[in-house]
Structure formats: C-alpha cells, structure tokens
Amino acid sequence: MIKPASIYETRNIDQLRRELRLDPQSLRRFRNALLKHGQSDSDALSELPPEARDAFANQVELHALQLHSRSDSQQDGASKLLFRTRAGMLIESVILRIATGRTTLCVSSQVGCAAACDFCATGKMGIAQNLSPAEILDQVAQARQALAAEGRKLRNLVFMGMGEPLHNEENLYTTLEALTAPELFHQPPSRILVSTVGLPEAMIRSARRFPAVNLALSLHSANQQTREQIIPLARRYPLDELRRAVSELNRIQPPNTEVMVEYLMLDGMNDSPEAARELIDWVEGLRVHINLIPFNTIDDAPHLTGSGRETREAFGAQLKAAGLKTTIRYSLGADVAAACGQLVRKENRRTAMATAGAPSQQPSS
Ligand code: SAH
Fold first, then answer.
1. Which tens digits make up the pLDDT trace of 250-300?
2. Which residues are catalytic?
C-alpha cells in the first residue's frame, strides 16, 4: 500500500486532488474547516463531494498523533493533552485558558531533550528524539478541535513544551511555514513564540527566516558561573555570545518586537539583589522584556527550590525600578502535572530503551 500523504504536504495533496478530480474550492473548504476552524474530522470531510470522501480519507493522513488521554485542571484553565507518536512515544501539549480569554497552546518539539537543564523534568528523561513537522502541527490541529468543541479559539502558540526547538531546526522551520501559510493554519507569526535554551547561531538563523516570530531566551542567570551550574549548554554558548545574538535579533526583527528573556527564580541561586543587578547590566541596551518564572518543583531535582513570592516580587521591583519591562509569570496546570518542567513521561525512557537498545541523543549544534 502507498503511504498516505500527510494533510500538510500540500504538493502531494494537490496531486491527489487532481487524481480524484476534486475541485480546488472544496479542498480549500475542507482544509479551512479542519485547520483554521477546528471542526471535527467528519464535519471537515463533509466539505468534500460525497463521491470523493472515502477515497480522500483513505489516502490522506489527517492526524500524525493519537490522543492518548486528556486531563483538565480542577484549579485553573489548563488542560493537558497526552499524545502517542507513531513510534509509540508519549508527548504532551498544554492548553492554557488564560483569564483574559486568550487561549494559548504550549507545544512540544521533541520527545525528551538533549539540553539536560538541571531544573527541567524533560531534560531528565535521558532521550531526545525529534518530532516531525506533522507531529508538531497535529498538536495544534487537535487542540484547535478540542477548543472549538467548547466554543473557544486558539490565539497564541508557544514552543515551551518538551524539547529544544532549535535542536530540531529544519522541522521547526517547516512547521513555522505551515503554521503561517494562508492555505493551512494562517497563524499570524506575531502570535507564535519559540523558546530556546540559547543557541546563538540558530537564534539568528531563525530570526532571519521568520523575523516576525517571537523568540524567548531561557537565560535564568546573567552570571556565567551560575548559568553553567544549571544549564550544561551554557559552557558552549557563553553569556557574551548570547548577548550579541539578542542584539542581532533586535536588528533583524520588526522594531516593535522584543526578545523575551525568561528567568526562572531559584531560591539562593539567582534571586539576590546582586543577581538582579547582573541581569540589569546584561540587558542594558537590548530590546527585551523580562519574564520572571516561578519554579515548579520536580522529583529529579530535590536540591532546587523556587524563590518565595516576596523574593520574586522584590526582584521584579528592582528590575522595574531600573526601567526594565518585567512581568511575573504565574503558573497554570500544576495539579495535572502540566506546568513547565513537569512535561515528562517515565514510560518514554522505557520505550526508547526497548526500541533502540540505548537512549538516543540528538547531536547538538
Ligand atoms: N527548550 C526550550 C523550551 C522548553 S522549556 C527552552 O529552554 O526555552 C520552556 C520554559 O520552561 C523554559 O524557559 C524553561 O527553562 C522553563 N522551565 C523548565 N523547567 C522548569 C520548571 N521546573 N519550572 C518552571 N519553569 C521551567
């Protein structure tokens, strides 16, 4: 049997459309229903002429992922969607129904992560496998379907789930092409945010290709020694190189775009007035806004605790007093283990070991 074309492979789908003698308009209505409006598969397929539906559905893969389970937070507006990939691995996406009504989806770009940051549960999985563009895009398509069923629209997309998006660079770019393509998702690039551990050259390449897509840098410390303690890749990509990269992004991106600097607040590690001073100095002259993140405790890092609310607020106040745009993030979904850093499935490690014989590592650039 011929491998069915993925719904995102526009060239293959167009060829199939000709073979099935489908008119372009009904194909367009079908794609819009599925990808832009989040209608159910059967409602979307009903946009096609009845005689072509079965043949089309048999030759086109509408979904690259299988929904494994869904947990809705009882505390706040977060829902965790757990998906199974064709390779049998589990990945997670999180729907954040933010109080302002702006619904955000947090997507995964890899199973596991090779960056292995000390504070992050995904990095402790010991594997890193790239997700294909269809596997990343289907998280968006299925989340949109889940939200449409409750009368909501998806507004923002953040690459803050499992994985380091810039370690999966080519697939990330193919994904961004499809997300922004008018005939597919038609997502405004300004409502997409790619968060990275900080790979300077890849950040610049990404901004050159998609200048209006927002970038976030997981800085977490403006002190080289401290940063190295919690982020192994900090040794390879020191703070001065990162600073040059952010400055270059400021030149490449539209003038109203700021780079987001993410700063995880860790008790006794990076939350002192001195640490705030170092951060203020580091961002001097850069067009950025700072997002202070409360730490979600993870089982694998019992030696790390989050800074208390008062410390976080004092730190934020010091930054603001120095004239920096600063927001304090609040965390959703802790009760469904969906908050940042908790996106981990121990089963994946077992699956990866069983299939590959050993954990596979994505070579980092
Ligand atoms: N690899 C990318 C994106 C994934 S993580 C990156 O490093 O940016 C998304 C954000 O969650 C990052 O800023 C990451 O540092 C943060 N994060 C990781 N573990 C966390 C934890 N336990 N608590 C709070 N935030 C965490």
1. 999 999 999 999 999 999 999 999 999 999 999 999 999 999 999 998 888
2. 92, 340
Whether residue 266 contacts residue 307, with contact meaning beta carbons closer than 8 Å, is answered with yes
| Phi-psi map region of 341: left, alpha, beta (phi>0 left; psi -120 to 50 alpha) | left
The CA 112 to ligand 1 mean position distance, Å, reads: 13
Extract the tokens encoding 72: 């809705």
The answer to which of 32-46, 188-202, 350-364 has the lowest mean pLDDT is: 350-364
Confidence band (pLDDT; 50, 70, 90) for 2? low
Pocket of ligand 1 (CB under 6 A): 115, 119-120, 160, 164, 195-197, 218, 262, 264, 293, 295-296, 298, 340-341
Atom 25 in ligand 1: which residue has the minimum CA distance? 340
- Give the pLDDT of residue 348: 73
Q: Which strand ranges, in their side-by-side order, compose the sheet holding 103-106?
A: 66-72, 78-84, 90-97, 103-106, 156-159, 192-196, 214-218, 259-265, 288-294, 326-328
> Ligand 1 atom 16: the closest Cα is on which residue?
340
Q: Which two tokens stand for residue 43?
A: 């409602």
